[in-house]
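User: Please predict the structure of the protein below. I'd like the answer in structure-token form so I can feed it into my own downstream comparison script.

Assistant: Understood. Taking the following sequence of 138 residues as input:
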Amino acid sequence: MTKREVSNDEIMTALNGFANDVNKRFDDIENRFDGVDERFDGVDERFDGVDKRFDGVDKKIDSIDKRLFRLEQDIVEIKADIIDLKRSHDQLMSTLDKFLARLDNYETEQAARDLQFERLLSWARKVSEKTGIPLENL
């Protein structure tokens, strides 16, 4: 190769060509970045959708938590009511046992009194027959 002098126009033409090549490469890179940005926008939209679904799930979980808390309170109240009912039932059974014992005693006394009355009536009939004093029919 021989040395020759390069003119300013040739340098400028070469630089312009180089600059155009660099600009074209930057444009290609920019286009690729735009494509990546578009894909990230799609990913962002999907993440927004997932976030919305998680928000819905969070609301449902909060609702379930509130209902479970109310259910736990209801269970505590029901347990307290059951304890009160058992206590009341025990008192009622105790009272009923005492009443039945009194009734049994009364019936036993009545049976003894009825037996004693029958014996007395039998004796009075015998006395009535022997004395001739009439006895009203009892």
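That's the full token string. The CA atoms of residues 127 and 133 lie 8 Å apart.
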